[in-house]
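Practice set, problem 2.
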Amino acid sequence: MASLQGLKGSKATRSKYLPVVFSCLGHLYIHLCTAFYFVIVLSIEEDWQLPYPELLELWTLGSLLVGVAALPAGLLSDRIGASAMMVLFFVGLGGASIAAGFAPSPPGLLVALAGLGFFAAIYHPVGIPWLVRSASTSRGKLLGINGVFGALGSALAGLAAGALIELSGWRAAFIVPGILCVATGVVLFAFWVTGGLGENAPAASAKKPVSAADSRRVFLILLVTMFTGGLIFHCTQTSLPKLFELQSDGLAGEGALGVGLLVAIVYGVSGLMQVLGGHLADRLPLKPVYVGSIAIQIPTLWLASWLGGLPLLLVATTMVMAGASALPAENLLLAHYTQEKHHGLVFGLKFALSFGAAPLAVGLVAYTTRRTGEPSLIYVLLAFVALASFLFAMFLPRENKLSKLSATP
């Protein structure tokens, strides 16, 4: 009897933590598969002998779909379950990446990248609430750890793409991550159909009620800051490889691998900041954590526009670290000020806004690069965007110690 109870307890524990594991893997894969093109494109530019801005714009439709499809993905998840949607995410994202690796021409690559963006849209409105529902304590810290996997994906995007390009060409940089993603989806499907995953229903919330006025106020402010934060993130992710290629003063060496390594350093180091950001969000009022993170971005974005070499690497790392550290607090603010039964909707809206900024970001980077020959001007513009975001965030209501908020998803 004792052994039977132990088996049941083991299965229950596994059901509790498997969503956390697969949510973290999903965060890694989405950031890898939505960032590796910015390194791969440097090799396609040489192979196909087409202009960089023209090739960069092939990702515009895909990046648009990451935002547009986020809200329907969140709503569909509320109806058919997060596990089923995550299986679709892994298999669809991997399949689209493999298809991109076999694209014979720009139109074919455009279609494959559009498919990649469509399936990538599933992760954030589904995987983040899935993780939160599976965690009973230290949700800010878990969100920070999940954020590390996302940053690791962005870091590996540059490093893995650069290494695979050097070893086997740019097509392998699409195909190999795609195969890994599909394989992960198959494993998740096996756990799902055998009952190894529990579809955790939203638990009864013990959070302190908030007023309708505060809910509206916070949501309207976050609509602005989530969009501006998404714009800064996507402009940075899009342009950083090219910025390092042009302004690293020899630090990147020659070829895609050197650029990819610098990008990997930036996102790898900055990812650790999300753990600290989550830790602070569990223990401090959310407003100063959130506002302070945005404030750091203002001078660092401006400095990145004209620095080079090692100073550029240090400033770029600090800039991305600041943006990453804001995310756990942002997610906890959004969850606290909305009813739990509407989390699929509000997180879908959040990521529709955040990733909806991606095509604008790609267009801005392509336009400024075409006009000036380099992407540095975009960082001056982003510094003003960060300033506007900071001013809006200052109007968030004050909170008590955030141990109360972090106890809610």
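Problem 2, part (b): a different protein.
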Amino acid sequence: MQACNDKRSKPTEVLSAEHRVIEQMLDCLERVAADGRVRAALCAEDARDCVEFLRTFADRCHHGKEEDVLFELLRARGMPTHVGPVAVMLGEHEEGRALVKRLDAAARSADARAAAVEFAAAADEYVALLRDHIAKEDGVLFPMAESVLRDEDRVEALRRYEARERDDLGAGTHERMLGLSERLAHKYGVKRASERAAPAFGGCCHH
């Protein structure tokens, strides 16, 4: 599995590798939600682990790198962030955060049946949102980013990614998140991130 602070030459490659990790957890989230539907009760540990991963890895680590590093560098190179692809991505980040709050509330509910129903509903929305979001970033935004970033921007982005891992998340955090994801993937028989092919950039956005 790719680590959150994976060493790669391009900042978009780091983010794309993290997408594969997030996709692994999206599959786990679907399985946890489906299991809850069938049993009319959530596995509390698995539901909590899903929420923790989504908040820590998907949002604080991954979306944080995009918002605080990549998008800021793109803005400095003239790409607008209040309209266009970046604005869409920012809006979807906020949608995702709202859905994770719903997942968390459901996971903490004392009403087992209602919790399972609400968790599954929020999981369906979150998985659909994130899969579409990832496809747009990998297929459209990241190729656009590579067309405007300069070499010095790439070096700066990678440096700031490492600083975020070290200073903002804390030592051992991403390893713990990866271990958590591996536990769920093993339990639910989900394909690992390392087995998922990265998308090939191309088409109208690749000049």
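Answer key, part (b): Confidence is low (pLDDT under 50) at residues 1-6, 201-207. The first helix runs from residue 11 to 39.
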